[in-house]
Records
---
Amino acid sequence: MMIEAAALSKAGGRKGNQDSFGSERNDNGGCWVVADGLGGHAGGETASRMAVEYVLAHFRKAAEISGEFIADCFRQVQAAIQQKGVEELGLSGMRTTLIVLACDHENAVWGHVGDSRLYWFRQGKILQQTHDHSVPQMLVDAGKISPQEIRGHEDQNRLTRAVGQDGELRPTIVPTLFPIEEGDAVLLCSDGVWTYVLEQEMEADLLVANSADEWLNLMEKRVLARAEGPYDNYTAVAVWFQGAMKK
């Protein structure tokens, strides 16, 4: 399987960048991670960085990808961040969103906590999309607002789940392995991206992009054209699956 990937992460209108991302590739597949830290500059940056590091370390030791692999990633990150917060008073209460994608030569699996999103595109259209763990998403589920009204909602930043929280974490994980088809594309991004780039614009930019990197650059232009003031950090990872899906 041929995999092309690209990434970008910028501070935006903030002084520091609390987003983190990372990837790991081997002969059997790959793993990609995006995390958006919460809890003050030091805490948020530490939490998101730890999340990425622990997930990738776990991937390096994994025998195969599965829903249980994703669940283990979240358990390990949750425990590590909570422990770090106990050990260092200045990091108490730090949290992070987390989206994890892993694949082998034929299938993918992913899971998330918070409002960092994964979009799966097939034939240029969104086929799968994660649902935020947030107050506005609850309003969407209850039929009170439309999905597009999440953007700019007064409670957009109020999350219902975040890694590092007290109690049970309950990540959302795809129930079965997801078959990959040639030409599929995936976008993992923090809310600093999807707040300013609409889903139909993601599809339009994918249609004209000649590479994963160009796709991200086109979407970044939209962010920069619309964001004002001390706007949020923005991070995105693009993964393109090309060629025959064979070992």
---
Amino acid sequence: MYQKILIPIDYDDESSWKKALPAAIDEAERHGAELHAITVVPKILRLPNLPENYGSGACDHVKAKVEKIVADHGGKASVVAREGSIYREILKQAHAIGADLIVIASPKVDYLNELMGPNVSRVVRNAHCSILVVRD
């Protein structure tokens, strides 16, 4: 049923992948689908007093971290690192690869009325494909 599965991973936040990554790997294996991972680095401000290439290695650094996380869990995924708005970059990547499933973790929140984090809810509302929300 699924051919391309996308999972967003924040290497610095274990809750973004601890339960969601095994679910994504399982779905990919069950359906013979390609697994893709995305990690998003917040946009780095270009201030006049900083060097021109300030922050240039950030995407490469986080991409390597995510590749290790996926490999450590026995998965094989194409990993991309983007700079920008988290939910927008997830949605752009889902369109770019033609994803038919996004597996995303929903973080625990501190207040009762919030059911999902803001990025998760925006992805769920705006995605063109099916979403599997893995609750913490």
---
Amino acid sequence: MGRFHVQLDLANVEDMVLAEAGYLDPAKVRRARIPGLVDTGAVHLVLPKTVVERLGLIATDTVKVRYADHRIAKRGKIQKVWFKLLGREEVSSAIVEPKRDDALIGAVVLEQLDFIVDPVAQKLKPRDPRGIISEIE
């Protein structure tokens, strides 16, 4: 299992759409750059509640989560957040965690962005440096 930190850029997708359409000054798009813990044992993207609030995102659903110590809790889920990691961008849902200071980057994000984890070097490597390759069948 690999665990290490990277920088993660986040933004409010609705703000980005409004800015692209000319209805919002691009400088007013709510953004954040936070450390993210890459954890190959985690599944989803998890964001700190304080960052979700700063971005103006609202949880529209709840999900059950299980912690490493086997506790179970219900947490809010946001449907759309833009993120950029090592030059690759995606829009995804995320779980909101009130007690986190950093993001938790799980397997779903790593698959979406087509990264391979090098746990020895503690780095993410693109499977293909020319871009994301989606496996379909």
---
Amino acid sequence: MFRWYGPGVTQFDLVITNAQVVRPELDRTDRGLDIGILDGRIAALEAGLVASARAEGCEVVDAADMLAFPGSVDAHTHMGIYQPLQDDAVTESRAAAVGGTTTVLNYMRTGQYYLNQGGPYEQFFPQVLDLMEGRSHVDYAFHLAPMQASHIDEIPMLVERFGVTSFKIFMFYGSHGLHGRSADQSEFLMTPPGERYDYAHFEFVMRGIARAREQFPELADQISLSMHCETAEIMAAYTKLVEEAGELTGLAAYSASRPPHSEGLAVTIASYLAHETECPTINLLHLSGAKAMDAALRMARAFPNVNFRREVTIGHLLADIDTANGVYGKVNPPLRPRQDVEALWVHVLAGEVDWVVSDHACCQAEHKVSAEHPEDIWLAKSGFGGTEYLLSGLFSEGTKRGLSPAGVARLLSTNPAARYGLTGKGSLEVGSDADIALLDPTITYVVRAADSPSAQEYTPFEGHELTGQVRHVWLRGQRILRDGSVVGEPHGRYQDRGPNRAGARPPA
């Protein structure tokens, strides 16, 4: 078997023909190109490969004019937050595959939920890797959150030993819980006695990230810090006001209790801290509406020395407080009124959003709502799944507004892969991993939770009509989705993004 790529390769493991090939780097979609796959990578992208492929007896797949997208890089998921990680790894990676995703980046932290453990990451993270190994149908990597002072000291070790190059701060955890007000954050976060999870800690995390960028200069552009930007004090005050007034219920009440300017204020604080600490690689997560985006763009103008990335979720682009299946649409930051949804689309089309994610957090119905008071928004848990609708949702709603397929691919694949150092992902060019999703743009379907392999059993998108459905997916050249159904045993791999990964330059 040949071991090189590009023109002249005549033998392949698989050839996909008759696809419309989406090429985000070239900002176009090409017809008439065959995709030749060898040893898990794209070995050739040119017309006329089928004849030699058939002559050699290799597999040929007729894409029947479907769109061939690079497999999505779902850069924001929460596998293991509500169900055991080893269980989520199986069911929720199946949901990812159904949605055209071939790589997930999962947020993980110490404290309650996830593994329900505190302590050092040197002991915690190997358990995470063990629980994922051999269970995921898609490739995976992790973002980690430094929750205590000692975690900051572990950042260089996490980069070099485990290949973790992206980290996170939850700005509202200082005096607010995952689902609402919280009286004891130390117990919730499992942090050492006397430590506080506050603005000072956030500053010191940023200084730790900045030092790691200096220590690993060849990785500096991808050693980044993601920020969940909401302000605990504003949310606590507004939650009290909304509850006492009693005029709003459901998702409208929850949105008002975590008002949009809380996000804007947190974005502003985070941005100045990034400027102060010379930590320039900042990702502003799940911006939920007009005010959050306004603050993010203002800060980009104010601090051109900070290389911001702006993220939006498919949930905030598809659903609003009136369409999201009631309390089952509770999420942080909240879903907003329809005018915020449309404002986000304006920013997407203007090129001011860098990537779109699912923020997938599978929470089964019996855990999501209170058994005694199932309609009480304050008692419901935050978060829901949605990775299975990532590509079809963005394609459906985006293209009707003028977003090109190449634009869809940049938002779902190319941009997050580049920022987070996922070598070989996010592209269909020669040499890339053969992570390919075939989407049929002629299929219109209605979202039904019953059709999803996720363990969640409900969706805030129930009844939404989407045009464009993922039909077939390959991960590194191996099929994982056939006619909309997951096939084969899990063979997803951990993606080491550190200095010792295959093909990386050694540390300076």
